[in-house]
Each structure stands twice: as structure tokens, then as C-alpha cells.
């Protein structure tokens, strides 16, 4: 009797398990990265994806801080028009935002003034001179928009985001949410920032965030799984052909 050349069901099952494992790994990496806070409650409107702005800080030695990113603020405040506490989400518009700041040996700041100086957002970076690692250590915000009963002031000096190495830029293409205070979180998009070790007006080599690395890992895992399936199918076909030939008897 001629042997069947069908693909063993366990082959397909193993491949599906590999692909599902890759997808689940991506899901867990996205929702619970070590330095990315959970997204706060949904705001009452969606302004869409913010435009990416390019910002710099100069001192007597030239450019000392570079940043390229889209920024979206989630602010909770007492609304005049609605007479209750609401959460609003607003994009920073680069063409209406002025940047300034300062740079020292182990600290640097980027100040963003927008909407006719009604929003003042400042990022503070700290460098560890021993490890040569830097991170976003502090964020402050003051906002006085027309619908606010009183200005919103938020400040946090104990943050640990956007970690990089001296002379290198930090890069993260994926959206991140940075929790700053109870009434403020910041969504960042396509971030590249370097507060220390710049040479000229160009970013140093980029160190990519864990979210981007995980995003690149998925197609590699899926591709390897598919390649393995093709190899298994080929081997099953060759073994089936060999058995079918061996099954014929000369009468």
C-alpha cells in the first residue's frame, strides 16, 4: 500500500505555539515595560497623534542638548465650563512652542513654553558621573488655560525614564506614557533625546528602548517559526516518498 504524504498534525501545532508565544511576548512587553507607566483613564476627547518637534539647548560651547519628539499632555483640572473635574488631553504644537534650558556637568534641562506662555513644561536630566548613565529625573508643569478654575501645577523629582549612556542618544519609536503626578501624565511619540556628550548639532549613536527591541523581535521569531515549518514539511515529504517506494513489492 502507498504511504500517505500528509503533514503530521504536531508539526503545525508546534509552529502555531511558537507564533502565539511571540505575540504574547509582544503584548506583555508593551503593556508592562519596566520604566513605562500605565495609561491613565481615557480623556473626554482625542486630539490625534501629536506632531514631532525638534528642540535644542545651547551654552557657550554650542549645542548641549538635543530632543526630537511628539508630546501629548493628559491634565486633570477643575473645568469652568463643565463645573467639575475633567481630564483633558492636548498636543504640544512645535510651531507654537519655544525651547530653552541649561546644561551643566551632571545635569541638564529642557524648558518648553507654549500657547502664549500658558503652558510651561520642563524636563530635567541627571548624569551619574560614575556609571556614565543619564535619565529623566524630574518634570515640572504649570498650565493656566482659559477653562481652568485655577492653574495646574505638577512636579515630580523622583522619576526614572529615558535612560541612556553618555555620548549616546536615547531613542524610542513606540508610544510611551510617563506618569508624573496624580493630575499629569505625558504621552511621548518617536522620542530621540541626548542631554549629555553631544559633538556638534547631531545626535550620537542611538540606544533603542526595550519596546522597540521587542517590536523588532516579533518578525524574527515568526520568520524563524515559518522557516522551521517549511523545513519540517520538506522532511515529512521526503520521508513519505521514501516509505512509499519501500512499500511496493515485486510479484
TrEMBL record:
It is a single-pass type I membrane protein. It comes from Epinephelus coioides (Orange-spotted grouper). One of its GO terms (biological process) is establishment of protein localization to organelle. Belongs to the LAMP family. The chain crosses the membrane at residues 216-239. This is Lysosome-associated membrane glycoprotein 1. The lineage of its organism: Eukaryota, Metazoa, Chordata, Craniata, Vertebrata. It is found in: Cell membrane; Cytolytic granule membrane; Late endosome membrane; Lysosome membrane. Keywords: Cell membrane, Disulfide bond, Endosome, Glycoprotein, Lysosome, Membrane, Signal, Transmembrane, Transmembrane helix. The keyword Transmembrane helix applies. One of its GO terms (cellular component) is lysosomal membrane. It comes from the Eukaryota.
